[in-house]
Amino acid sequence: MALPVRGTGLALEQADLTVFFDEEMPISYKTRNGNFDLVENEEGKKKSCHWSIDTVPAYEAEPFMPPKRNFLPWIMLSPVSFEYERTRGNFDKWQQYGLWVNELITGRDEIPEETRTKILELIDGDENINTSIRKIYEYMQQNTRYINISMGIGGFQPIAAEDVNENGYGDCKALSNYTKALLKVAGIESFYAEIGNGTERAVLFPDFPSINQTNHVILCVPGQTDSIWLECTNQQIPCGYIGHNNANRKAVLISDNGGHLVNTPRYTATDNLTTTTANAVINDEGNLACDIRFNYHGLSCARIFYPMNISAKEQKDWLMENLQADQVSINDYAFSDTIIDKYQNSLALSMTASNYATSIGKRLMLEANIFNKYSSAITQRPKRLNDIFVDNGYSEIDSVKILLPKTYSLEYMPENHADSCLMGSYAISFGTTDGSLTMKRKLVVKGGTFSKESYGEISRFFKTIDDGDHQKVVMIKR
């Protein structure tokens, strides 16, 4: 994909692109978001296409920016057929493209006998195929690491599985192919799958097969009721978790019959849930003691993959950096994970915070929302230039109970807030029971693209969240 404008603050006066090709090897192309002038020339068997575009104004960065391909002019090119490093391919259909990729990986799945024996011993006695898949995936994680290697037909062909086995490293193609080979040893069928990874790359045009819509390889293991998708380049994530950069999009599944488009797992705002439960005590001096548990579901699990896999000292440093309360001391903490229907993980924490409540004369002031205060990234602007984009939605449900000091009485209770817009909904409420202050909070932010005309409504929504989350309780000494 050729983008004549690449960065913020740069206006374009004029850009030109010329492509030369033979009539025997024609090209296909697609343009978007600009008034391109096209001139086609032909001299015998030689042809050319010349595109030009001018006067594209500069753009500025905005919160929740959509991908550049959504609003900047671009041209996408693809050969209809090609010859490359003694191989031949065709982009007429995704199925034809898949035949070429399948040719590149065929015969590169041999596993040494010693490793074959290890795999068979590893899964011996497994009655559940999902258990075997998980064990093999974890074996791959423990015995390999990711290194970007652009070798083998210009980086399109993976390193052979036996070389990955010997060296212990590979790129996304090699590690996916290696995992595919290990699963084959166990008699488990899986499929190499090309995908556009990240915000700026995706398979968006089923009617326009091209190699520049993909930049990554993952693995698909078909099941009776649902497929298991494997991201093979990360040693920290659990089996079946492919992350937000691979979720909710199309992949090109490669088989002996060629390529066909399939959908990767879809995560909604409801799936990507964080629940927070806290029980706290405030003493007469305004010091806070709190036991809290964060439970993560769906793509929200990624929040603690990193701290789950580092040393105890690094974990404590990470907690100190990421807790929102000031002057924190950590008494105890524990990370855990489990698979019930789906993978989920959690953090349980016991901590204290000195002077959490501010003392002013006879009064103590504190924020009831201890850990999950939202600071809005959207502020009111005179004009929004681009649509608002959220790659993956999420939900948060918080429940906080704070036992207040008996020598103080409540003078001011925060107001309940509720709001909603196209982008989501928010509600926070406060109450008292048995000498305790309670807070209930729920936030839902939907994924998707929202019209810039709704910017005023959305900015108001986030202002409501910001205001509601930072409200203070006021207590006065009896």
Q: Please tell me the total number of domains.
A: 3
* Helicity, as a percent range: 10-25%
Low-confidence stretches: none
The average pLDDT is 92
Q: Helix count?
A: 8
Broad CATH class of the largest domain: Mainly Beta
Termini separation (Å)?
69 Å
Radius of gyration: 27 Å
The CATH topology of the largest domain, please? Jelly Rolls
Structural class: alpha+beta
User: Biggest β-sheet, characterized?
Assistant: 8 strands, mixed
Strand order of the largest sheet: 17-18-16-15-22-26-25-24
**How many E strands?**
28
Shape: flat
**What percentage of the residues does DSSP assign to strands (E)?**
35-45%
Task: Summarize the topology.
Layout: E1 12-22, E2 27-32, E3 37-43, E4 46-56, E5 74-79, E6 81-84, E7 87-90, H1 94-105, H2 113-122, H3 129-143, E8 145-146, H4 161-167, E9 169-170, H5 172-185, E10 191-195, E11 216-221, E12 228-230, E13 250-255, E14 258-263, E15 273-282, E16 288-297, H6 305-308, H7 312-322, E17 328-339, E18 343-353, E19 358-360, E20 363-367, E21 388-390, E22 394-403, E23 408-412, E24 417-421, E25 424-433, E26 436-445, E27 448-450, H8 455-469, E28 472-477
Parallel strand pairs: 8-9, 15-22
Antiparallel strand pairs: 1-4, 2-5, 3-4, 6-7, 10-11, 10-13, 11-12, 13-14, 15-16, 16-18, 17-18, 19-20, 20-28, 21-27, 22-26, 23-28, 24-25, 25-26
Helix pairs in contact: 3-5, 4-5
